[in-house]
Amino acid sequence: AEGRAVARPTNADDKSVAYSVHYPNNRGGQQAEGINIKAHFDPSLFVVEPISDQPGLEVLDKSGVWLQVEAACVPGKEIVVFGGQALDRATNGRIKALQHRVSHTEGQPPRFVFLFEQKSSPS
User: What's the pTM value of the predicted model, to 2 decimals?
Assistant: First the structure.
């Protein structure tokens, strides 16, 4: 996956970032077979991502099943917002960080996404 930062914070305490990511959906760039980005938790407070028209974002539900986000949402019309590790810590676990990954679909068009990550500490 390739990423491009498109916004820089103006406040030294704010480490938030907006960036775009390109997942080419071809062999060679994957972290594992069928996976562009391995399962992980983001360190941020939260992430905002518009739903892509190409599938790939998967989230782990409470029962341990991977769910494909684009199958449950309307691409181009809805967004997904999920908590990261900083929010989990700030809420003493009341709002859990979401484990997620990005799958790889060879032969499909590239997947482009635009993300915003809120990384500053809550007051």
Answer: 0.80
